[in-house]
Amino acid sequence: MNEIVLAIDEMCSNLMIHAHHCNPEHMLELHIRVPKKRELIFEIVDDGNVFDINNFMEPDLDNLVQEKRKGGLGIRLVKSIMDSVEYLHKGGKNVCRLTKRVE
Q1: Which of 2, 65, 72, 92 could form a disulfide with 59 if both were Cys (CB 3.0 to 4.6 A apart)?
Q2: Mean residue pLDDT across the chain
Q3: Neighbouring residues of 11: CB distance < 8 A, sequence distance ≥ 6
């Protein structure tokens, strides 16, 4: 379960920084659903600038190491933890849907 919390934290951090530019006036909503046994769906809802994880180009690991650059691995981490990562626009809001099947 700790890795799920890590993935949600990473996505919320990315949205606060990149879509909301750290503006404390902006809010995120987190919806948690259990549509069927052993499946969790987390939806992070916001109205910030569009941050479509599906169009995010993951940086090359070798380049990150050579450049000694901080950051750039969060989306890769989220995708490796969650079973499904989707981005959609619903009801005038941005929705990042993270799905995880649990054993």
Answers
A1: 72
A2: 84
A3: 44, 53, 74, 78, 96, 98
Summarised one tens digit per residue, pLDDT across range 23-34 is: 888 889 999 999
Do the beta carbons of residue 100 and residue 4 sit within 8 Å?
yes
Please provide residue 14's backbone torsions phi and psi, each rounded to the nearest 5 degrees: -60, -45
Instruction: Please list, residue by residue across 41-67, b when 16 or more beta carbons sit within 10 angstroms of its beta carbon and e when fewer do.
Output: bbbbbbebeebebeebeeeeeeebeee
The residue length of the chain stands at 103
Query: pLDDT of 25-65, one tens digit each?
Result: 888 999 999 988 999 999 999 987 776 566 666 656 566 55
- Residue 6 contacts residue 77 (beta carbons within 8 Å): yes
Of the candidates 72, 54, 53, the one whose C-alpha atom is nearest the C-alpha of residue 63 is 72
Question: The sheet that has 39-46: what strands, in order across it?
Answer: 29-33, 39-46, 93-101, 84-90
| SS3 label, residue 32 | strand
